[in-house]
Recover the amino acids of this structure.
């Protein structure tokens, strides 16, 4: 490339490191333009200087670019380390114990209901037998779905692609990494409104931040998300409530409306203190109430900031303070049965979503402003198809819970019986005829 075309190219493309590295300037061309030998030498020197300068600048830019990324990654690692540390603390271990006790009671009760024998094999692993039919559970892990299906469902961008192929409503989204954050920023400029940044393969709301508006917000949120996965998503924030629809073999077992975690102000305590008290109360309430604690993360700070609050604020007595927009850390009191509220169209969409991913036991999350009308009418979306979904919000909530493990176990035993039959082994146990379905007080 000659000098002139090189300079034109700079003008067109801007001074980008990529461009700089791929371009070489032929000083001889430049020198040939001047007639006087002195001028020629000067031209040659200045061209060399220019070339040197150009490459040095490019190298510095690249270095900054790379070290900038390294700094972002270092922040992400620090967040991950803090998260790991908090799980090793006594509260984290107590939560684990509560979860373990809850699922132990759930599977034992379900086994008793279907007339099966249950044996604890190891830690949380139960072996449940009915005649020759045998199945194993470990908390929410069951034989309902195969490992590939679990992998597919955990990959949010892949799930969105499969849902979109079915014509189901999903948010506008863009996949990116810390290295390609510029693309995500450019993408968000195309649409107005708020964004959510989260890990592409995340769970339990970890690393998800709502209310992202500016490029600075996006960078901060991306760091928080990168603590859990290097692949990230930025997607349009849907308005409305989150509904969890639990499907078993395409049939709706239960639906729960899940609201944001909140605390009730006492007029004396700061929000930081109120969170501390709430977490303490959850831990003290045992397996029924204490499965998650409210963690202080970016979504908490952003949700408070939107209300003009911070952790140090002392709201007026009786104020209900919404702590997070990400609902995962809500409490039993924030969940309420929603089966009767959902229109047929949403129930069908949820079943189609579970089918599109191939999940037999699916917790489909829907966000809508109005559950009584189709998603297209309310602007709602299908957010997620969860495998190994949690059971606690089906059992313990503001109103009567449902013992969903009973139909789930019935189905697992039926699946085991069918396997025995197909392998030609005689004498498979008679599966339970009907799904036993009972509300717990
Ligand atoms: N696009 C979105 N619009 C509104 N809220 C969202 C959106 N994405 C995530 N959220 C909020 O964040 C929570 C966690 O996001 P989700 O995609 O379910 O990730 P996870 O697998 O960690 O549960 C959701 O339950 C919801 O409260
Ligand atoms: Mg979720």
């Amino acid at each position: 490339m000659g000098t002139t075309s090189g300079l034109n190219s700079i003008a067109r493309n801007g001074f980008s490191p990529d461009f700089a590295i791929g371009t070489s300037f032929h000083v001889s061309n430049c020198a040939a333009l001047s007639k006087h030998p002195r001028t020629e030498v000067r031209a040659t020197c200045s061209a060399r200087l220019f070339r040197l300068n150009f490459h040095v600048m490019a190298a510095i830019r690249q270095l900054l670019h790379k070290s900038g990324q390294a700094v972002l990654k270092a922040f992400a690692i620090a967040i991950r380390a803090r998260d790991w540390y908090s799980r090793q603390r006594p509260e984290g271990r107590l939560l684990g114990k509560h979860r373990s006790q809850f699922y132990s009671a759930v599977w034992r009760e379900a086994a008793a209901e279907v007339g099966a024998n249950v044996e604890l094999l190891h830690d949380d692993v139960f072996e449940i037998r009915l005649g020759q039919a045998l199945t194993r559970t470990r908390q929410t892990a069951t034989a309902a779905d195969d490992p590939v299906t679990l992998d597919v469902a955990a990959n949010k961008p892949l799930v969105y692609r499969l849902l979109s192929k079915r014509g189901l409503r999903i948010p506008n989204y863009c996949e990116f990494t810390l290295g390609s954050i510029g693309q995500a920023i450019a993408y968000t400029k195309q649409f107005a409104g708020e964004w959510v940044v989260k890990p592409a393969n995340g769970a339990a709301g970890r690393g998800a931040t709502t209310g992202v508006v500016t490029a600075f917000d996006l960078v901060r949120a991306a760091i928080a998300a990168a603590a859990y996965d290097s692949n990230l998503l930025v997607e349009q924030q849907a308005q409305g409530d989150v509904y969890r629809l639990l499907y078993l073999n395409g049939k709706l077992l239960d639906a729960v409306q899940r609201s944001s975690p909140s605390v009730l102000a006492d007029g004396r305590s700061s929000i930081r203190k109120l969170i501390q008290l709430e977490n303490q109360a959850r831990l003290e309430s045992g397996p029924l109430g204490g499965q998650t604690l409210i963690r202080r993360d970016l979504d908490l700070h952003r949700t408070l900031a939107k209300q003009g609050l911070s952790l140090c604020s002392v709201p007026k007595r009786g104020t209900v303070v919404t702590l997070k927009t990400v609902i995962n850390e809500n409490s039993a009191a924030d969940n309420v049965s929603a089966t009767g509220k959902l229109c047929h169209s949403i129930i069908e969409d949820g079943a189609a979503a579970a089918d599109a991913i191939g999940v037999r036991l699916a917790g489909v999350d829907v966000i809508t402003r109005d559950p009584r009308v189709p998603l297209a009418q309310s602007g709602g979306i299908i957010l997620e198809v969860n495998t190994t979904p949690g059971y606690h919000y089906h059992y313990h909530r503001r109103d009567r819970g449902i013992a969903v493990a009973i139909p789930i176990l019935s189905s697992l035993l039926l699946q085991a019986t069918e396997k025995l039959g197909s392998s030609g082994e005689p004498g498979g146990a008679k599966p339970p005829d009907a799904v036993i379905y009972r509300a717990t007080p």
About this structure: The CA atoms of residues 69 and 179 lie 6 Å apart.
